[in-house]
Every structure is written in C-alpha cells, then in structure tokens.
Amino acid sequence: MTGKALQGKVAVVAGGTRGAGRGIAIGLGEAGATVYVTGRSVRGQPSDMARPETIEETAELVTASGGVGIAVQTGQFS
C-alpha cells in the first residue's frame, strides 16, 4: 500500500487550539487526513487566558505535517 493511512479521510477535532487537541490534530495530519480543527482563539482576537496559540496556527501545523488543516472558529456567538 502506498500513501498515508488516512489519505482521503476527514476528521474533526474540537478544541484543537492547544494541548491534547492540537497534538491529535497534528497526528491525524501526519497520517494524511483532512482535519477540521475547531477553537475560539483566532489571530487578532486574544484568548481570554492571554494564550498566544490560535486555531489558524494549528491548521497550518496540520498542513505542514502532511495533511490538510482547516480552521473553524467556534464560540463567537453568545
């Protein structure tokens, strides 16, 4: 078999901005998946905890690892 194990597959990772969610998203990307990563922290809008990580950054890391990363902002409606 050639290619990556998850090539052509789609995954959704909730809470992918940092921590375990980010690690899972990157791992899925390494296996070739298209990964929709959701989170609240986006560029230009600092997180409530003043953390620097953003959901766009995670999507870029997924793409850099061999998958396709797609950032999806959540929590913008209250």
UniProtKB/TrEMBL annotation:
Matches recorded under InterPro entries: NAD(P)-bd_dom_sf
Protein name: Short-chain dehydrogenase
